[in-house]
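Ligand: LLP. Inputs:
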Amino acid sequence: MTPATSHPDGLHVEGIALSAVAARFGTPCYVYSRAALTAAFAAYRDALAAQGMAGRSLVCYAVKANSNLAILNLFARLGAGFDIVSGGELARVLAAGGRADKIVFSGVGKAREELRAALQAGIHCFNVESASELLHLNEEARKLDVRAPISLRVNPDVDAKTHPYISTGLKSAKFGIDINAAFDLYRQAAALPHLAVKGIDCHIGSQLLDPAPAAEAVDKVLQLVDRLAAAGIPLEHIDIGGGMGIQYRADEPAPAVTDYLAPVLARLAGRRERIILEPGRSLVGNAGLLLTRVMVLKSGEEKNFAVVDAAMNDLMRPALYDAYHEIKKVGAGDTATQSVNRWEIVGPVCESGDFLGHDRELVLAEGELLAIFSAGAYGMAMASNYNTRPRAAEVMVDGDTMHLIRRREDVTELFALESLLP
Ligand code: LLP
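Predicted complex:
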């Protein structure tokens, strides 16, 4: 669940005490472990190798989970491809040294400029989500005199059984193309002169702990792939999306990558198509934590509040999904100045939804540091400047070294793009 370990001087990430990170870079601060990121990527490699698929698979990291350049660069060095959803993410991947020919471009609405930029960069594949997008892409490719490599993202109508906001594979979702309509659309795509039909894509949701829905989706996808091949439209690759869940609660273990992927990969073993995966959360989620300091302890009649210097603008998941993140004291000693020990961990933002944890049993003192775990995915990536709060610093720990990989924003930068009326 966590890249942190206990030591006499408090929690460490690799060889660095979190108190030293706070002393040097301040709080709130995201802290990542290079070793944990590397291990998470290796787990995918190993799971694929175990099924004999190392040579015919590509792990495309879903950039949206955490798009810091240092993290993208690390994955690029490890040989990853990338799953992007915007022109902005394309620019980031290229700036971080990612290879264009290992990029897949997902998303239900891609602007013309984004299509053009990706065509010019020469990406591996566009995951097309509508009939209109096929036509837009054919037109943009014609203007550039190229052929656009495409997959159709099909919606297999399976219930991923996850939070409704992050479930994408049901018929009622805005995502993908109804799998029953996809065959006809493939025929149309194959007839368009500036498209090259390359593959098929499917992503049913996120934070999935049970592989059964993903396996069910793969079964449906394979039926279509075989039907297409029989109709003279052979596909080169099958993209099974991302979605593998991680452990957020100490008492609720998540499956290992190998176990989660086993039923999915078993269905793909022995086939000729190349396999693409788009994991996001499972590569970065448990490689990062959010370090924050208790500013104020406030005991009320019904509840006790620990107001910390991180807030919903830094980590939106609790406010948005009622998500649970483990919270632990960084300090080792019992520095309590208060006897109460059940706390609402809240930020300073002016919203009742601004909480990071409910009813947490902790012995707290003002000024002490807390670590909010499993914050490497969809943490900083979803942070905002609400309440004109500068976004947190980001630090990567590598053994005994800490690297500042994004400095804390400055308040003046937050309104530098605004102008007064004449
Ligand atoms: N591929 C596609 C097309 C996606 O839409 C997503 C995530 C992924 C891959 C990566 O999925 P992952 O492996 O990370 O589950 N903000 C939410 C999660 C939103 C996920 C959106 N799509 C959260 O904090 O839980």
